[in-house]
Amino acid sequence: MTASGELDAGSVVEAMAVGFLRTDSHGAILYANAWLAALLGYTRDELVAMPSLELYKDPDERHRAVARYEATDEILMGLQLRWKRKDGSPVDVQLYTTRRDQSGTTIFDIVVTEVSEVVRQRQELERTAATLDLVVLQLPAIYWVTDADLRIRRTGGAIEKVLGYRPDLFIGRTIPHVHAIEPGTTDPTEYHRRALSGEIVRYSTEYRHKLLENTLGPNRIDGRILGVIGTAIDVTAARTLERRMVDAQRAESLGVLAGGLAHDFNNLLVAILGNADLALRDMPPGAIGRSELDNIRHAGRRAAELIDQLLAYAGRGAGEASDVAPQPVIDELLRIINPTMPRGVDIRVDVPRELVVRAAPSQLRQALLNLLANARDALAARGRGGRIAISARAVAHDGAAHVDDVLTASGDNYVAIEVSDDGPGVSLDARRRIFEPFYTTKASGHGLGLAAVLGIVRSHGGGLRVAAEPGDGARFTILWPSAGSPLPATGGAPARETRTVLVIDDEALVRDVVARMVGDLGYFAVAVADGATALDIVETRPVDAVIVDLSMPGMNGAEVIAALRARRPQLPVVLCSGYDRTRRGPVAADAYLPKPFDLEALAATLAKLLR
How does pLDDT run across 556-586, given as a tens digit for each residue? Predict the structure, then answer.
């Protein structure tokens, strides 16, 4: 090396695949090697002839760098700056600088490496990470990165939206520490350790009242596992929807089962009540066995009431829809139920008188009575006073499902009737089952009350919602169609006076007892087992009225009635059914008798049609 600062031609720096630069404190370039000259697009002589200030894209960067160099005697490692080439294009470089004094002058020896590609890759990674953050923020998802000690180093995603706390809350804490502070249903520590060993781990947990699906994997850099990358997706809404669909399918299946049982059982009750009525008509007061027949008749009617509740659950409730104001109905029900209320219960009512719903009055009364009785029993089970609140308001529902829905109403105008209590509440498992028939949490009870409420609301095209937590009371909300959304109803027309009645029923036991009841009322009864035989009789002999069962094999009651209307449009028809009590099908009957019916109901119906 010469005194002028030039290096010997055989110097090692000429053989290096990096740049080398020597400057003084005034910025004069004393030496540059060939690699650096080629990088910047100059000849070596051009570089040595120019001040180093001209290398900087931003001249102020040079002044800041010199100030840092002069502040230390140590090697300044990896200072990253932006220079410019001869053509003006930028080039990112990293400088490794040493400072020494020579003959009263400060000399800087600088090793230069190009990092433009590294910078470009880093910027690309940062842009990718920013884009990924934006994507994750649009999903109900979060992610976190830990080091090998399971200490959280970075978090991202919709943390505040999903979990409700600021994103950096747990940065710097270990996974076991986080679980100790806020434990979920699953300790994630062991899963993270498995990921550290190279395994991809998936598990579910409930954390901060959210159901999360988690995936953990090793964070590998250059083949080494430096930590864990974890992601979690909030699946609370999806799981709730799945449960609601399963519950709805189970409720539908139970409804079909309940309806089928009710149909068959009602046929038996027709025979039991009909024969009891016929026997009682033939027995004088005080006769031996009369009291036993009275007991049979009474028990049959009690059984019929239970079947009515099963049919309500199946959505086959009886009664014509009309405009009904809930407020007088609620006042009447409170007068009935008040004597059975536990002491110290405060009942608050906020139901505007002007609200009107479209409902079968008896069905509305039964649904509200069951909800009030449920609230009463909840407070009685607690053993002390409490509060029951009944309110109603007009709402416009968009048809969207709610997390608390048991039955989701379609988009329309409704009256939301709410019955709430501050009793012991309902567990999650019980909340999913309380609307099943015969399921009950009470010491006594048959479990048909809330099941009937669900069926009644379903049959009216409404919605049902339950909000309840253990120890937090319960709130039942019915979305009942407003008077502007009438339910379909069928009507009948009076017929001429007749004497001969044709009875059509495939059940021999029912067919026989109904024919005997018709005969006992003074009419001539003809009984057949199927629709085809009945149509032949109507064509060949005088028939003045028909009693037909709805559910029959082959030709059902609706098809028989359609055929009768085609042949004799004025022939009075009485439709009987132990299942379809809403008469919402294409059935144009003149009268309707829900099974089981007694002799008085049959007499009144025939008297009206054959007067």
Answer: 888 899 899 888 888 999 988 876 544 444 5
Q: How far apart are the first and last CA of the chain?
A: 136
Contacts of 159 (CB under 8 A, 6+ apart): 142, 165, 166, 167
Q: How far apart are CA 451 and CA 445, in angstroms?
A: 12
**Residue 248 buriedness (CB in 10 A; 0-12 / 13-18 / 19+):** middle
Phi-psi region of 254 (alpha: psi -120 to 50; beta: other; left: phi over 0): alpha
The β-bridge relationship of strands 76-84 and 152-157 is: unpaired
d(CA 585, CA 490): 9
| Residue 196 CB partners (closer than 8 Å, separation 6+) | 148, 150, 218, 225, 227, 228
- The residues facing 213 across adjacent strands are 204, 233
**How large is the greatest C-alpha to C-alpha distance in the chain, in angstroms?**
146
Strands, E assignment, 338-461: 345-350, 357-359, 386-397, 405-407, 412-421
Using alpha carbons, select from 97, 50, 43 the residue that is nearest to residue 73: 97
556 φ, ψ (degrees, to nearest 5)? -80, 175
Supply angle C-alpha 417, 306, 339, rounded to 5.
Answer: 55
Output phi, psi for 353, to 5 deg: -70, -25
Per-residue model confidence as pLDDT tens digits over 103-142: 778 888 888 888 876 667 666 656 756 666 666 666 778 8
C-alpha neighbours within 13 Å on the C-beta side of residue 410? 5
Closest by CA to 414, choosing from 372, 358, 349, 475, is 358
Express as a percent the part of the chain with pLDDT over 70. 77
Cα separation, 265 vs 51, in Å, equals 107
Tokens, residue 17: 């695949």
Between CA 476 and CA 368 the distance in angstroms is 10
Task: Say what the pTM is.
Answer: 0.39
What value does the mean pLDDT of the chain take? 79
441-460: pLDDT as tens digits: 554 444 466 777 887 888 78
Q: Does the CA dihedral 273-275-281-286 come out positive or negative?
A: negative
**pLDDT higher than 50, residue 364:** yes
Q: Are strands 152-157 and 545-549 parallel, antiparallel or unpaired?
A: unpaired
The stretch 209-231 carries a mean pLDDT of 88
Strand-strand pairing, 322-324 and 357-359: antiparallel
Does the pLDDT value for residue 4 go beyond 50?
A: no
Q: Look at phi and psi of residue 384 and say left if phi exceeds 0, alpha if psi is from -120 to 50, else beta.
A: beta
Q: Is the peptide bond before 596 cis (omega within 30 degrees of 0)?
A: yes
- The whole-angstrom separation of Cα 536 and Cα 528 is 11
Q: Report the DSSP pairing between strands 524-528 and 500-504.
A: parallel
Q: Residue 317 pLDDT > 60, yes or no?
A: no
3-state secondary structure of 3: coil
